[in-house]
Amino acid sequence: MRTGVIGTGRIGSTLARILVAAGHPVVLANATGPGSLAPLLAELGPAATAAHPVEAAGAADLLVLMVPFAGVRGLLPPHVVQDKVLVDATNAFSGPGTPADLGGRGSSEVVAEWYPGARVVKSLNTMHFETLAVAGAASGRTASERLAHYTAGDDTKAKEIVAGIITDLGYAPVDTGPLHSGGILQQPGGPLFNRSLTEAQALAWI
Q: How far apart are CA 123 and CA 176, in angstroms?
């Protein structure tokens, strides 16, 4: 499965590295164009390619949004992600450290409204990039010690696909429920955001 990653800052680049290390080909995109990704591509090797965001979305089997939440609306034509698993790894803030007030909606519900044909899953948004880089498959943790990554969504099969990738990366996939209630658990201000929890600890919070 080719994973598209839109957004190649610290977290997006880290995700690309661990995906390639786990045997997943990636196609990367950012706001400045494929040419800016040459150093990262040289590091990642032949499993990685670069494209513009729309091209990356079209080439990927699964797409991960790792851009600022404010940049998600209008980033892609909705038809490009029609019926595609779209992982919303963004976090909505109104200011430094302050969760955005979305009127009781989860931020991923808003993303789903912007891309109504996509199979939106909230995931990969709760962990600091430095932890993401070192706490997965190569960490030497036992199965019970694996840290949790979460999936929230209304499409069960889409969540299963994302859970498979989480497992490949060496983390424990934990289903937090539907996109509304499960997504709110994961987003800034929720009990699972920016907390390094094992599977058992995460399930206890849920």
A: 10
Question: Which residues are 4's β-sheet partners?
Answer: 27, 63
Q: Are strands 3-6 and 62-65 parallel, antiparallel or unpaired?
A: parallel
Reported in sequence order, the residue ranges of the chain that DSSP labels E, i.e. its strands, are: 3-6, 26-29, 48-50, 62-65, 85-88, 93-95, 98-99, 119-122, 148-153, 172-177
pLDDT tens-digit readout, 108-151: 999 999 999 999 999 999 999 999 998 876 567 788 889 999 99
Task: Residue 181: count other Cβ atoms within 10 Å of its Cβ.
Answer: 12
pTM (predicted TM-score): 0.95
Rounded CA-CA distance 49/150 in Å is 27
Q: What are phi and psi of 163, to 5 degrees?
A: -60, -35
Q: What is the DSSP letter of 146?
A: P
Structure tokens at 114: 């912007």
Which residue type, as a one-letter code, is found at position 58? G
Residue the block writes with tokens 């190649």: 8
8: closest CA among 45, 47, 52, 46? Answer: 52
Distance CA 132, CA 89 (A): 13
Q: What is the DSSP string of 68-101?
A: -GGGTTTSS-GGGGTT-EEEE----EEETTEE--
| Region of 45 on the Ramachandran plot (φ > 0 left; ψ -120 to 50 alpha; else beta) | left
